[in-house]
Every structure is written in structure tokens, then in C-alpha cells.
């Protein structure tokens, strides 16, 4: 997922809007005739190679449609690139700098393949690094997204807590970051009771652990917390089979924060980065925690368990409380947390919660620029009573089914610390059907918007 060097011999590729096709081909009568004969209109996703003398390719066209049509998706150059034959291409367009970077990134993202278990055909159309973009930055973003996709796509048999730890170690070592892992009984000794409780029923080789990565010595402190539930059976509140089929992606929050960390470290951003990942498997066995149990979290709050399938917020609670102890300048959690968030906004939007209007505006503005759509949901104060069961401080699964994403976010906020600037992403982490630049499977969500917003959020 890299660009070809700028000196590469490449076929000219013209990105053309439907209404600009005639003007583009005005001085290219042979190309105009070929485009007409082949039915090329400049519609979104169309691609055409135009032959020259002797039949050798002379140039290529990629349809860019019109503004109204483009609003219905993103990465439209990637859609056209998927139709092009193998070869090197050099893009010619009138795109703005921001649009050019988005489309160039989409091309790289569209070339992703997951081939760990079966050889997959690689897309042969390669793009020369377009002039005017920071190619290294775009490649770093693409690499971070590829890491996130890979981690989510690997099935739970090969991506348990130990495997997630190994992936985190590999990333840390490649960037000179430090990593500490608190595992098994040490979780109890060092006061991570909820992480231990959720993961204690798993097999010994899939024991729970807390992964802690640190990188950078100067600048503002950013702490990323990612839900690392490597497989979720639902525990004793067992999920039906249909709901369990995609639970390999329940560590999508961890995959996303590792992908974002990869981008931050590769780019050398001037921050002090910390990544916390509670890695567990929510299994069914004799030691499994039970409905009705009351657990005490790291920060002393008690939690009544009304559903063992609401385990993600439990492991995040200990990790957030731990992260808050250092009072970072900004703390952000990512989790595949609630079905309610999917019902609210579907699989394409990344819903987030924050009390900080500057964070909200920064994320929303950045999301529009980098084509990584987000949507703000509220920490609605009147719903606080819904997570207070009376018998304990908190309820991990309020009855009634209303506002599930909001009550989960309110639950997490109780552990983020009073003075902490805290934002929570409740993501899906999965593309259910292939889209331009986004094959079916694991997906980064919100991390590109956050990466773009970080300079403003942390005053870098």
C-alpha cells in the first residue's frame, strides 16, 4: 500500500467530471471517438484505457461524476482504479490539495488484500505519488489502516489476548516505544479487578492482560484506550449463534487505537502517547462471572452485573481509571461497544461522545476534510439515573433497551476522571459490503478524523 516513485514511467490518468469530459477531449479527437464508442461518460467509477497508434495504451480516463453524486460515497478514484488494468498511472486532475490527498489515500486503501489464509489477487494498477501531496504521510495513514484491518480480520483462534499482545509488541518495537503487560493473577495484585473478572473463564493460554504502550518524551499527553475483547461469547448470557458470528471483531477498538498509534509514531508527532488495551476473551466456563454479581472497579465504584454480555464497558472501566490517574491532556477510547450505536447511525458513521465543544468541532471539521465521517451523540445527563441500580453504584446493562449507546458512554465517563478531557468512540469496525477503497471486512473508523484533528486539539 505504497505509491510508486515520482520518476516512474506511467500512463497519464485523467480524472474527469461528467460535465468536463467534452472539454478534456476537445484536442484529443481519437480519444473522444474511443470514449464515445465505449460508452464512457465520466460517471462515477468508470474507467477507460484509450489506445494510441499501434494499439498501445496512450492514456486512461477515470470518471468523477458530479458533485451531487459524489456526496453518496467517498474514494471515487479508488472505484475507477479497481477497473483499470495492471500498470503504473500518473494522475492528472483539478482537485484541491485536500481532495487529492483523500483520493490518493483511497487508491492505496483500495489495494488492500487480506491474504493470510488464502492467496488473493493483488490489484495491479499502481499510482505514482501525485505532486503536491505529502506522500509519506498518506502512506503512513494507509499503513495504519492496513494494520487495523488485519488485526480485525484475523479470526479469534489466531487473535487471542496473547496474539494481540504480540501485535502490540511488534508495533512498539518497530517505533522504539516501551511496552508493559500486566497479566493473569498480576491483574488482581495490581488492582485491575474488572479486567481479570471478565477474562478469568478463558483457557490459560488466552488469559486476560492489560497492554500498556508508551512513546514520546515531550509534548502534550494523549492516552488512547481500546477495547480488546478478542472474542465475545456473551458469557453466561450466551449470545445466539447469529450474533456470535462476527465477534472476532470485538477487539476492533484495540485494533483502531493500534492503527492510530502506528500513524502517530510513524509521523513523529510531538506528543507523549500512551496506549492502554485490556485484552480478554469473554468465555463460558466454571469461573465465568455471573448475572447478579457485584464487582468493585479499580476506582472503587461498585457495578451490578445484569448482563454478562455487556463486558466491554467493564474492561474499559479499569483501563480508563488507570489512564486517568496520570491526568493526560486528552484521553480517548475506542470500542465496538453497543448495537444501539449501529441502529442509530449504521455501519458507515463513527459516533462519538464528548463534553468538550472544541473536541467536537475539531473532529467534525477534520472528518469532512479527510472523508472519515463522524457523528456526535450526547452524554445526556438525565439518563444518569438509568445506570444507577440502587444496590450498587452502577448497572452494567440497564433494563428497558432505551438509549443503549448513551448509557454505555455515561457508564464509561464515570471512570475517566473528573478533570480529564474525555471522548469516547462507539464504532462498528467492519464494512459489511464492499465499497470503494473499503473491501468487506475489518475497518478503521474515526482514526483518520482524530489524527487530522490532533494538532488543533492538542495545540501542536
From TrEMBL:
Keywords: Aminopeptidase, Hydrolase, Manganese, Protease. CDD domains: Peptidase_M17 (cd00433). PROSITE patterns: CYTOSOL_AP. GO terms for molecular function: aminopeptidase activity. Residues 307-314 form the Cytosol aminopeptidase domain. Pfam families: Peptidase_M17 (PF00883), Peptidase_M17_N_1 (PF21337). PANTHER family: LEUCINE AMINOPEPTIDASE-RELATED, PEPTIDASE B. Belongs to the peptidase M17 family. This is Leucyl aminopeptidase family protein.
Amino acid at each position: 500500500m505504497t505509491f510508486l516513485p515520482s520518476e516512474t514511467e506511467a500512463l497519464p490518468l485523467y480524472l474527469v467530471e461528467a460535465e468536463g469530459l467534452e472539454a478534456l477531449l476537445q484536442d484529443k479527437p481519437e480519444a473522444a471517438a474511443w470514449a464515445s464508442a465505449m460508452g464512457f461518460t465520466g460517471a462515477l467509477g468508470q474507467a477507460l484505457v484509450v489506445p494510441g497508434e499501434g494499439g498501445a495504451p496512450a492514456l486512461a480516463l477515470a470518471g468523477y461524476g458530479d458533485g451531487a453524486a459524489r456526496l453518496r460515497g467517498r474514494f471515487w478514484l479508488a472505484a475507477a482504479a479497481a477497473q483499470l488494468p495492471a500498470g503504473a498511472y500518473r494522475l492528472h486532475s483539478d482537485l484541491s490539495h485536500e481532495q487529492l490527498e483523500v483520493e490518493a489515500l483511497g487508491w492505496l486503501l483500495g489495494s488492500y488484500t487480506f491474504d493470510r489464509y488464502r492467496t488473493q489477487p493483488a490489484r495491479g494498477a499502481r499510482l505514482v505519488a501525485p505532486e503536491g501531496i505529502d506522500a509519506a504521510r498518506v502512506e503512513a495513514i494507509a499503513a495504519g489502516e492496513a494494520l487495523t484491518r488485519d488485526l480485525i480480520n484475523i479470526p479469534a483462534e489466531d487473535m487471542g489476548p496473547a496474539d494481540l499482545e504480540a501485535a502490540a509488541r511488534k508495533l512498539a518495537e518497530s517505533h522504539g516505544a516501551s511496552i508493559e503487560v500486566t497479566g493473569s493473577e498480576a491483574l488482581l495484585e495490581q488492582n485491575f479487578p474488572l479486567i481479570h473478572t471478565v477474562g478469568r473463564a478463558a483457557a490459560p493460554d488466552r488469559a486476560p492482560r492489560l497492554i500498556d504502550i508508551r512513546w514520546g518524551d515531550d509534548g502534550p499527553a494523549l492516552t488512547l484506550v481500546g477495547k480488546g475483547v478478542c472474542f465475545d461469547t456473551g458469557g453466561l448470557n450466551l449470545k445466539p449463534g447469529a450474533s456470535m458470528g462476527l465477534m472476532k471483531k470485538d477487539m476492533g477498538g484495540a485494533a483502531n487505537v493500534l492503527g492510530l498509534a502506528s500513524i502517530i509514531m510513524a509521523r513523529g508527532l510531538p506528543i507523549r502517547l500512551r496506549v492502554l488495551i485490556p485484552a480478554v476473551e469473554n468465555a463460558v466456563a466454571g469461573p465465568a462471572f455471573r448475572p447478579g454479581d457485584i464487582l468493585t472497579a479499580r476506582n472503587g465504584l461498585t457495578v451490578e452485573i445484569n448482563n454478562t454480555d455487556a463486558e466491554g464497558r467493564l474492561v474499559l472501566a479499569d483501563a480508563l481509571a488507570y489512564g486517568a490517574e496520570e491526568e493526560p491532556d486528552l484521553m480517548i477510547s475506542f470500542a465496538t461497544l453497543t448495537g444501539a450505536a449501529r441502529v442509530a447511525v449504521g455501519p458507515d458513521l463513527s459516533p462519538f461522545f464528548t463534553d468538550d465543544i472544541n473536541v467536537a468541532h475539531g473532529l467534525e471539521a477534520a472528518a469532512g476534510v479527510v472523508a472519515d465521517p463522524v457523528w456526535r451523540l450526547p452524554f445526556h445527563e438525565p439518563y444518569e439515573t438509568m445506570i444507577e441500580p440502587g444496590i450498587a453504584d452502577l448497572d452494567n446493562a440497564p433494563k428497558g433497551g432505551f438509549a443503549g449507546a448513551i448509557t454505555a458512554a455515561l457508564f464509561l465517563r464515570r471512570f475517566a476522571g473528573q478533570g480529564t478531557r474525555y471522548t469516547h468512540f462507539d464504532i462498528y469496525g467492519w464494512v459489511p459490503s464492499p465499497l470503494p477503497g473499503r473491501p468487506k471486512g475489518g475497518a478503521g473508523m474515526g482514526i483518520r478524523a482524530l489524527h487530522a484533528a490532533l494538532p488543533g486539539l492538542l495545540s501542536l
